[in-house]
Amino acid sequence: MEPLKLNMPSYPMLRFVSRHGGWLTAVLAIAVALGGIAEAVVTGAMCFALLGIGVGVLLFVAARVLVEMVRLMTDMLLPK
To answer: What is the pLDDT of residues 22-64, one digit of tens each?
Structure first.
């Protein structure tokens, strides 16, 4: 008897985020911080550097929380 094939969705974005989310959040946060520093160098206003670094840190924390939630969701709810 042939095994019954179930119609299980694959959720490719959840798998992508759970695999690559850790380093992507770091790259994104560093890019935002470097953008703020570059703007500060171009304009001469140091507030852009501080703002870019602050937003980069907040973005890193928020994105890491979301990645951890996706990892928890895929670990607990999706079939292996």
So the answer is: 999 999 999 999 999 999 999 999 999 999 999 999 999 999 9
Report the predicted TM-score, pTM, of the whole model to 2 decimal places.
0.79
DSSP the chain: -PPPPP-----HHHHHHHHHHHHHHHHHHHHHHHHHHHHHHHH--HHHHHHHHHHHHHHHHHHHHHHHHHHHHHHHHS--
CA separation for the pair 21, 66 (Å, rounded): 9
- Listed by start position, the domains of the chain span 14-77
C-alpha 75/C-alpha 57 separation (Å) is 27
Cα separation, 62 vs 79, in Å, equals 27
The answer for residues whose C-beta is within 8 angstroms of residue 35's C-beta and 6 or more apart is: 52
